[in-house]
Every structure is written in structure tokens, then in C-alpha cells.
Design brief:
The protein has 375 residues and is of the alpha/beta class. It is globular, with a radius of gyration of 20 Å. 46% of the residues lie in helices and 13% in strands. Helix 14 runs antiparallel to helix 15. The longest helix has 19 residues. The chain has a single domain, classed as TIM Barrel, CATH 3.20.20.140. It has an eight-stranded parallel β-sheet. Bound molecules: zinc ion. Zinc ion (ZN) binds next to strand 1.
């Protein structure tokens, strides 16, 4: 498909924009994925392999059948079905080799769409059913990611997740684990799991440990619950980024605070529809947030359940939310800026990405088309 296609109806939507944003362009652009779950991003073929190797019965024995169970349909909304799919992936991720393989394949799949930096998140406590230690699971993910780094040049980091609905005590144990692997593969800490009825502030002891050891953190918030959940993430847990933050716009004052402090939003379009946070992609506030100047990043969340890629998420944003080339450039730059990396490494990544981005988007910038760089 040609990069330049002026026949598309969106071609003239953005002032000064002369060409349509193609999937081919988006795939070629350097990108980051800061919000992706290991147990939500397996390949179907690998699930079948692992089930055979481990003697585990899955509800289907071929890719097509398994795809129907694991993947949400276009526009489908069902948190229950979405979560059930994780029972199957987690049942296969209880052995060192399986975890390592899936981490490697995930990084490889990301590298194939020119994602330069990923942060893979998972909760070690969900991988101990066969006696694996918490450390073993972290090291397995790290080994798989390092293998992919060497082969494909992608850079990676691990985020360890505490789980809201398990217990604050387990979150503290996982925070201690993140501390043990700080500078040794782990780049951050997260709180995931059921948002409603399980407030983040109950886990503040874990975040106290994280923050007092100068570790980066993010919190899933404002997806299944309102802005008060985001306020807790920011004010009780010291979140440097927010996982989703879809409902942030309901509190303009908090939104201004998040904006002023450059707290990045890890947005995921497809999964927000699938879990019921929004009715359809067109209802997502991503464009509103970008226009407001918020530090918006775009991510996949769960490549398997949402049957998506990062390229697809960008294209959904273009088609349904009216993202322009400038918006895409901002999202990409925000992604690199928001990485949980030391400033020096981040600067190098950002500089390279910026050069490549400018080169690839030249046809989209008619002369005199000035775009103010965002902070
Ligand atoms: Zn998530």
C-alpha cells in the first residue's frame, strides 16, 4: 500500500495535512509500548504448543477454535469473558521455560512493528502454582527479554504488578521483589486487578517502600472506576504514570494537576472497549487529552485478548478519534519521554526516534507546517 493516498476522506481533515496516514507508515515509525501484560500477550500457536508440552487441556485444540475463545470480537464488551481468558494463559505460564519463551516472543513481535522500547508487566505471585519462586519468574521474564534484545535490538524493562484484589500484604512482598531487581531488569512497579471495591490507598505501604527506594511506579486507575481512583493513585501512591486514566476528564481540576505534573497516561483503546470502560473507540477521550496537552501514550495492554498490535491501536485512533500526524508524533515522543529509564539512556533513545520520525513523516508536513514541540 502506498504511503501517500489523498483519496481518503480523512486526508483533508487536518489543516496542512496533505496525505493520509497509512498503516504502513505507522508500522514503520519508531514506537514504545509502556503498558503490556505478559499473560495477555501470548501467541495462539504458542499456547497450543505449551499445552501439549505440559499436558494441559485447553478448551480448543486448534488456532481458529482457540482464537474464538481467547480473542474478543470487534466491539465486544465483556469483562467476564476478557478475564476468563487470563485463566488459560496463566495456566500455561507456571514453568520457567514457558515464561521465558513468551517474554521472548512478545519482545520479538513488538520489534517486528518497530517498537523500540517496551515495558512488560506481570505479577510474579500468579506464577507460583507449580512451585516456581517469585525470583524464578522475574528471572525467566528477564532472560526471555534479554535474548530478544540481543537478537532484535529492542530495549526492554520489567514492571512488577501488585494485585488490588489479592491483598496489601502481597503487594508489599512484590514491592520488595521490585526493589531486589531494581537496576537488574525491573524498571517499575504497578498496581493491577479489580479497581472497584479495592482502593489503591490500601496498598500504600507497598508504594511507600517503592517511592522511598526511588523506584518508578504506575497504577491502573480511572478505567473501571472514576477519577477518585486516579486521585488516590497520584496522591497516596505517588504514581509517575497512570494506567488508562480514561475517566480523568470527569474531574477537570485533577486533570489540570496531572497535566501540570506531566504524569503520563498509558492509554489503550481496544482493551477499554473490551472491558467495558467505553462503549466504542470513538468515545475514547484520547483526542481531548492530547488537545489539552496531557502526556498521552498509546499502548496495547493485551495483544492476545484484544487481538491487536500497537500499529492497529494507532490506526483505530486515526480512524475513530481523528488523530492527526502531529498527534501521532506527540504520542510517540511522549512514549519515549515517559519510559521508566535513566535520563541518559532515555535521551539517546529519544534522539534516535526523533530523527527517524522526522524523516519518515516528511511527506506529511507541507513546507511552512510548523508544529510546536510539546513538553
Ligand atoms: Zn493493563
Amino acid at each position: 500500500m502506498a504511503l501517500v493516498d489523498q483519496s481518503h476522506p480523512h486526508a483533508s481533515l487536518h489543516a496542512g495535512m496533505m496525505t493520509q496516514i497509512s498503516e504502513e507508515l505507522v508500522r514503520a515509525l519508531p514506537k514504545t509500548d509502556l503498558h503490556l501484560h505478559l499473560d495477555g500477550s501470548l501467541r495462539l500457536e504458542t499456547m497450543l504448543d505449551l499445552a501439549r508440552e505440559q499436558g494441559i487441556r485447553l478448551p480448543a485444540e486448534d488456532v481458529v477454535g482457540l482464537g474464538k475463545i481467547m480473542r474478543m470480537g470487534e466491539g465486544e464488551r465483556s469483562l467476564e469473558r476478557y478475564l476468563t481468558a487470563f485463566d488459560y494463559t496463566l495456566s500455561l505460564l507456571q514453568e520457567k521455560e514457558a515464561i521465558e519463551r513468551c517474554a521472548y516472543e512478545l519482545a520479538r513481535d513488538c520489534a517486528e512493528e518497530n517498537i523500540r522500547y517496551i515495558e512488560v508487566r506481570f505479577s510474579p505471585i500468579l506464577h507460583t502454582r507449580h512451585g516456581l519462586s517469585l525470583k524464578d519468574s522475574v528471572e525467566s521474564v528477564r532472560d526471555g527479554l534479554r535474548h530478544a534484545e540481543q537478537e532484535f535490538g529492542i530495549q526492554t524493562g520489567i514492571i512488577i504488578c501488585g494485585i488490588r484484589h489479592i491483598s496489601p500484604e502481597s503487594s508489599l512482598v512484590l514491592a520488595q521483589l521490585a526493589l531486589e531487581y531494581k537496576g537488574a531488569g525491573v524498571v517499575g512497579y504497578d498496581l493491577a486487578g479489580a479497581e472497584e471495591h479495592f482502593p489503591a490507598k490500601k496498598h500504600r505501604e507497598a508504594f511507600f517502600l517503592i517511592l522511598n527506594n526511588n523506584i518508578n511506579c504506575t497504577v491502573h486507575a480511572g478505567e473501571a472506576f472514576g477519577p477518585s481512583s486516579i486521585a488516590q493513585a497520584v496522591h497516596y501512591c505517588g504514581a509517575h504514570r497512570i494506567g488508562h486514566g480514561t475517566r480523568l476528564r470527569e474531574d477537570p481540576d485533577l486533570m489540570a494537576y496531572v497535566n501540570d505534573h506531566r504524569i503520563a497516561l498509558e492509554m489503550c483503546l481496544s482493551s477499554n472497549v473490551h472491558t467495558g470502560a467505553i462503549a466504542r473507540v470513538a468515545d475514547h477521550p484520547i483526542k481531548v487529552y492530547l488537545d489539552e496537552g496531557l502526556r498521552v501514550t498509546l499502548n496495547t495492554d493485551n495483544r492476545l485478548m484484544s487481538n491487536t498490535t500497537l500499529t492497529r491501536e494507532f490506526m483505530l485512533g486515526v480512524r475513530h478519534c481523528g488523530l492527526s500526524v502531529h498527534d501521532i508524533e506527540d504520542i510517540i515522543i511522549y512514549g519515549f519521554k515517559s519510559a521508566f529509564l535513566p535520563l541518559k539512556s532515555k535521551k539517546e533513545l529519544l534522539r534516535d526516534a526523533y530523527k527517524e520520525l522526522r524523516r519518515l513523516t516528511v511527506p506529511y508536513h507541507p513546507s511552512g507546517d510548523e508544529h510546536e514541540a510539546n513538553i
